[in-house]
UniProtKB/TrEMBL annotation:
Molecular function in Gene Ontology: 2 iron, 2 sulfur cluster binding; metal ion binding
Keyword Thylakoid appears in the UniProt entry: no
Protein name listed in UniProt: FAD-dependent oxidoreductase
Iron-sulfur among keywords: yes
A GO cellular component annotation in the UniProt record: cytoplasm
Organism: Mucilaginibacter segetis
SUPFAM superfamilies: FAD/NAD(P)-binding domain, ISP domain
InterPro entries per the UniProt record, alphabetical: FAD-dep_OxRdtase, FAD/NAD-bd_sf, Rieske_2Fe-2S, Rieske_2Fe-2S_sf, Rieske_Fe-S_prot_C
Amino acid sequence: MTSKSTTMGTRDGALESPWQNTLEVSISNRQNAGVYDCLVVGGGITGLTAALLLQQAGKQVFLVEAHRIGFGTTGGTSAHINTFADTTYAEAESAFGLEGAQLFADAIREGYDLIAGWQQDCDFEVKPGYLYAETEKEVKQLDKIYEAAVKVGVNVAYTDQVPTPVPFKKALVWPDQAQFHPLKYLSVLQKAFLAAGGSIRENTLITGIESKGGLHTAGDIKARAVIYATHTPPNINLFNFECAPYRSYVIAVKLKGGKYPDALIYDSQEPYHYVRTHVIEGEQLLLVGGLDHKTGHDDPEKAFKALEKYVREYYSVSSVKYKWSSQYYVPVDGLPYIGQMPMSAEGIYCATGYNGNGMMLGSVAGKILSDLVLGKANKYEKLFSPARVKPLDSFSEFVKENADVAYHFVADRFGIYETDSLKRLSPGTGKLVEVDGKKIAAYRDESGEIYALSPVCTHAGCIVNWNSEERSWDCPCHGARYDVAGKVLTGPATKDLTAISTHES
Ligand SMILES: Cc1cc2nc3c(=O)[nH]c(=O)nc-3n(C[C@H](O)[C@H](O)[C@H](O)COP(=O)(O)OP(=O)(O)OC[C@H]3O[C@@H](n4cnc5c(N)ncnc54)[C@H](O)[C@@H]3O)c2cc1C
């Protein structure tokens, strides 16, 4: 039985990224038949890469996506393809030794090469990447980044020419970085996967897996192996303590005059900013992003305003064409977790903790996980193994990340949030309100209708916060997100928020 779906028109928030509007694909939603070699859960860059490699290797693969292909962060990324990473090679060397840093650099490069090898008709362009320092402190960091990158053989040099209006003290250039259209790329992978005989089913949330005798079952699907390519694995798991969810912001602006830089440019501030140019439907746009913060911990409206103020300070902006945000996961020791899912049956794999580098790391994770399913050795298996022992010096960071979680578990329960009555809730807004002594996550739509939900996150019981920009309820503990009707947008939750019937008070 097949059913047709024709667009990639949605992502995990109310705002629109330019990617989701420019693509139309038609896919067959096949139904289950027999036992598959591998069930891939998640239709982002990780899932489609793993699924394609396995299907091309002769395995029978079923890819299942909770929403639509590209719905997750791959549909909200800013799509830089780099040979450096948020965890610098200096940081990787200090935590994992020179050999670890070398392997990390090789993995990033392999991810880049996988994309370069498959890309076609997806706006792929090689461009120089610049990183500049504005203060003496940043200059010191830049020097460290340079030295460690050279040690692991990455092509980088000092430069005093950066196509930026921002005054800087010192800068680096990576001559061969790249950019692309992430959903056009997904469509290339998806078509190749289907052409090789793979199966895809959308709008299907996997809530759990039952394993028995080497066979894994999810609903009506049976498979010999499972890959959680869900960006963060569902439900309560070890990664709730090993990775912290972050929101990141992007705006795409039209310039009045002046040249759009033909490069990928990053500053070294914390949180940082970046700019790059992309042509969307024939129109040149400057993408400006950054200002990342922990999910549910800061005001998204403030972040967008700050981003716009920043770009207007340096560029002559005529209009803001797009603004959107998305989520990524920061691993506690700096490297991603890719491999056998801890505390799960043998043959269940996962990949998470890519930081802001999931184009390369998601691609290489697809390769690593497909090798594991095929029973082949992979040189990155040990370094990225989720079972690895955490280096001691990451422990303080671990405590810091999780102190927040502990805070929300306790403080939320004691009602530290300001609450308000339903009456004062204006159309198009959401708020935690109190009705008859009960705390409610309430949203009033434009027509005046109220959506009242329990604010208790179904993942681990924290209280969700309203995200006024993406119109979602975001959990500050582990990053689960829900739409205004309470439906799960982003894991690790797999159950919707409970609807509450209420009368306006
Ligand atoms: C604003 C922003 C900018 C970024 N820019 C860059 C960049 O320039 N370069 C770079 O390398 N990286 C960047 N990143 C990071 C990168 O985009 C991500 O790491 C990457 O897209 C993750 O891909 P994924 O396939 O693992 O996850 P996703 O793209 O999130 O896909 C996971 C999919 O799994 C589905 N799913 C989840 N749970 C279930 C379930 N239980 N059942 C079924 N399906 C499920 C989801 O609906 C989703 O579609 C950026 C991140 C952000 C937030």
